[in-house]
Specification:
Elements lengths: L4 E5 L2 E5 L5 H11 L6 H10 L5 E5 L2 E14 L7 E12 L8 H15 L4 E7 L3 H9 L3 E6 L9 E7 L2
Parallel strand pairs: 5-6
Antiparallel strand pairs: 1-2, 2-3, 3-4, 4-5, 6-8, 7-8
The structure holds coenzyme A.
Length: about 170
């Protein structure tokens, strides 16, 4: 797959993920998040939603990523009926590359990809204790639409946060 360039942010480049990036993406996932997935899951998301699977690069090193799934189902923004939705599965940065606006940029650019795929809304789940994550999404105008008790394997609850895209 072509490494489609998206934008530069200071010394960082935001671009589409490629097959060759996946091992580095999986390592970042293990280093930064308690939720892990099979290699197959990452490959499937890259195949099905390449426009919304983005990486942040510093020099030759990948330092973060966002991956999303395009879905069709009940509206997450509490509108009536069904909607095409961009589900943010994970967004994460290596610790030393945080607070530089990279997650903001990754989410905003993934949203552009979702719009190109015809999504009318986006949503995600976030741990109720994850205040950096919650603040990031609130700043991007996501709103908490519900709380799901014992959502995670360790028993922690999740907030479902969503945002209309029109
Ligand atoms: C949450 C996370 C993705 C934010 O990434 P980031 O690149 O540092 O975020 P940004 O620099 O774009 O910050 C955007 C806003 O989010 C909020 N924010 C980010 N980190 C924060 C922190 N540690 N404490 C409080 N607010 C924070 C701030 O409002 C910030 O805006 P500001 O810098 O102008 O104050 C990052 O902390 C991370 O990788 N955490 C581990 C993985 C994770 O929890 N992911 C989210 C759930 S999947």
């Amino acid at each position: 797959m072509e490494n489609t360039y998206i934008k530069r942010l200071g010394e960082y480049t935001i671009r589409q993920c490629s097959q060759e990036d996946l091992q580095a993406v999986i390592s970042i996932n293990w280093a930064t998040l308690p939720e892990h997935y099979s290699d197959f899951f990452f490959e499937e998301l890259l195949k099905s939603s390449p426009e919304t699977f983005l990486v942040a690069q510093y020099g030759n090193q990948l330092v973060g990523y966002i991956m999303c799934r395009i879905e069709y189902g009940f509206s997450a923004t509490h509108r009536f009926g069904f909607a095409r939705k961009g589900h943010i599965v994970s967004v994460t940065l290596l610790e030393q590359h945080r607070r530089k606006g990279l997650a903001t940029c990754l989410v905003q650019e993934a949203i552009e990809g979702m719009k190109r795929r015809g999504c009318s809304e986006t949503y995600l789940e976030v741990r109720t204790s994850n205040s950096p994550g919650i603040k990031l999404y609130e700043k991007l105008e996501f709103r908490i639409t519900s709380r799901m008790e014992e959502y995670y394997r360790d028993g922690e609850a999740a907030y479902l946060m969503s945002k209309p895209l029109e």
